[in-house]
Write a structure and sequence with these properties.
Length: about 300
């Protein structure tokens, strides 16, 4: 069975918040503390161990440690010229973690960068060039799918998709492309687009799925998921945070226990037809383990799309 044939795809959980709990040699940072993507090269055993923890928990799709591996973000650490190298290493680490496991897949993670074109942080041309470079490196390295995630700006999504499909055409490759937007607690993307505008804007693109990740826990995603269930014709994904983040003793804390997380996610599958699930910030292998157990007997609800 291929990636696109899987009826229910279970992704992994958080990268950054779990790396913060791991023992990483100080030398691995090479003066670039906070650049998790550099660890693909300087401490591959750490990244492989992280992937393995989610695979052991039951995840069947792991995302590459490349959320911030575009030259735009890496330039903040004077690493822009190593973008291709870092992305290729990330795919290799994911493949090593999978090893001899069958039925597991690697999704190439492409984050929103740190510059939004709608706010004139970057030109469309420069954004397309740097995202195209990252996507080409991921595809060349052998990913099974591409995840354009944590999208905060509809223009940024469109630029990423155009760059993506141009690269796939150039390389004569066909890959499922997943788009995951981030809706703030007030109910829109950071630049103000609502879920209806997102659906209307992305409908012409041949993407595999549309969904939500990051910013909030699952309860705050419910109305958006319900809208997608009735208005989006392709597959739906949902990868929430471990609840809304709180500050406890000066540190970011995610409060939702695995049981509550899984309860909400199961409802999305059974009632709203969500067929791609996983976790974002704060979610641990235990969250994914319990989600895997709950999903083992579930089938996504059949949907009637009215749009």
């Amino acid at each position: 069975m291929s990636f696109v044939e899987e009826k229910l795809l279970l992704f992994d959980g958080a990268c950054g918040t779990n790396l913060q709990e791991m023992t990483i040699p100080d030398t691995a940072w090479q003066g670039c503390e906070g650049c998790n993507e550099l660890l693909n090269i300087t401490s591959p055993e750490t990244i492989i161990a992280l992937h393995e923890s989610f695979l052991d928990a039951g995840a069947r799709v792991i995302e590459t440690n490349t959320f911030g591996a575009s030259a735009i973000v890496l330039a903040e650490y004077d690493l822009a010229d190593r973008a291709v190298e870092i992305n290729r290493a990330a795919v290799a680490n994911a493949r090593k973690a999978i090893g001899e496991r069958t039925g597991c897949y690697v999704a190439g993670s492409v984050g929103p960068t740190t510059k939004l074109p709608s706010l004139s942080h970057i030109s469309v041309e420069d954004l397309a060039a740097t995202l195209g470079e990252q996507i080409r490196a991921l595809v060349d390295a052998g990913i099974d799918a591409l995840a354009i995630e944590t999208c905060q700006d509809l223009l940024q999504v469109k630029v990423a998709l155009v760059a993506c499909f141009e690269v796939l055409e150039e390389l004569d490759r066909e890959l499922p492309v997943l788009v995951s937007v981030t809706m703030e607690q007030q109910g829109t993307m950071l630049v103000g687009s609502d879920i209806a505008a997102i659906c209307a804007t992305l409908e012409p693109f041949p993407i595999f799925s549309l969904g939500l990740n990051c910013a909030t826990g699952p309860s705050d995603m419910a109305s958006h998921i319900r809208y997608l269930s009735h208005n989006w014709p392709q597959r739906i994904s949902c990868m929430p945070n471990q609840g809304l983040p709180e500050v406890v003793d000066g540190k970011t804390h995610y409060p939702m226990q695995p049981e509550d997380f899984v309860h909400h996610m199961s409802q999305f599958v059974e009632k709203d037809g969500v067929s791609i699930v996983g976790g974002c910030c704060g979610t641990t292998p235990e969250h994914i383990r319990q989600l895997a157990e709950a999903c083992s007997g579930l089938s996504p609800a059949k949907r009637e799309v009215t749009a």
